[in-house]
């Protein structure tokens, strides 16, 4: 993708409890994009956004596959150093989007249905991604 890369290393004491979080890389005056598979209470993603902001990122976005958003998640996202948090609709997001203006949703229903159809028929699933510009 020809972009610079930084990462946030986190260690957990136990489930839903981050012991430490360290930024590795330079983000000053850059747009940072956090990528994660899922978020539940959003403590970790919001903490990571704060780390990036404190390190000088000009803007911080997050993109997640699954947004569970339980408990204080929407309130945390609203207060977080995030421009937007983009999530797929593998879990319904209408209420969360009403409760938090930073949440945006990508509809993956058609591509997911086509992937299931192709898998069932023994067809190539990689074809679905072959027209993505690089």
From TrEMBL:
**GO terms for biological process?**
5-phosphoribose 1-diphosphate biosynthetic process; purine nucleotide biosynthetic process
Report what the protein is called.
ribose-phosphate diphosphokinase
Report the InterPro entries cross-referenced here: PRTase-like, PRTase_dom, Rib-P_diPkinase
One family from Pfam that matches here is: Pribosyl_synth
Species source reads Oppiella nova
* Pathway terms, separated by semicolons: Metabolic intermediate biosynthesis; 5-phospho-alpha-D-ribose 1-diphosphate biosynthesis; 5-phospho-alpha-D-ribose 1-diphosphate from D-ribose 5-phosphate (route I): step 1/1
Its domain of life reads: Eukaryota
Catalytically driven reaction(s): D-ribose 5-phosphate + ATP = 5-phospho-alpha-D-ribose 1-diphosphate + AMP + H(+)
GO CC annotations on file: cytoplasm; ribose phosphate diphosphokinase complex
| Keyword field | ATP-binding, Kinase, Magnesium, Metal-binding, Nucleotide biosynthesis, Nucleotide-binding, Transferase
Recall the GO molecular function terms of this protein's record: ATP binding; kinase activity; magnesium ion binding; ribose phosphate diphosphokinase activity
